[in-house]
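Translate sequence into structure tokens.
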Amino acid sequence: MDGVDTSDPINAAFLSDPTLIARTTRTRPISEVNSNHYDAVFFAGGHGTMWDFPDNSGVQALTREVYERGGVVAAVCHGPAALVNVRLTTGAYLAQGKEISSFTNEEEMAVNLANVVPFALETRLRERGASFQKAPNFEKMVAVSGRLVTGQNPASASGVAEAVVELLEAAPPLPQR
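Result follows.
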């Protein structure tokens, strides 16, 4: 894989495992994913998600279905771009009234990409009714709002994962539809 740092032992182990590589080359499109098979959904970040996630009907449907069935929805860094247009069956935005964190407007300016991304993620989440939570630039911030778990930046990734595991371990099995 071009551009991957193979001196990193985690990357090297992944790239040397043909089973894992095969799984990444045969990834099922999100529109074909059955939400009943999942107790949680997690959206990783990266600037590309700002274009790929917000208007993706598959992302919106999967997120709504898992959440409304009682599952956990989680995202970190720019991953919360997946949440900005998710509406529940009530018509309300999923973000409305929830404590949410994501890559902040200030962090976007600090990396000189505020004029590149299609919208300011923090601002859009606030517009959707989120109670936005943030730490100083590039420091860990994890917001847990019921079954919605979000993190501000890469430093928050392990905290988001730990919160998701705690929620899943504490929850009863989800009903299957």
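Note: The helical segments are 9-15, 18-25, 49-52, 57-68, 105-110, 121-127, 157-170.
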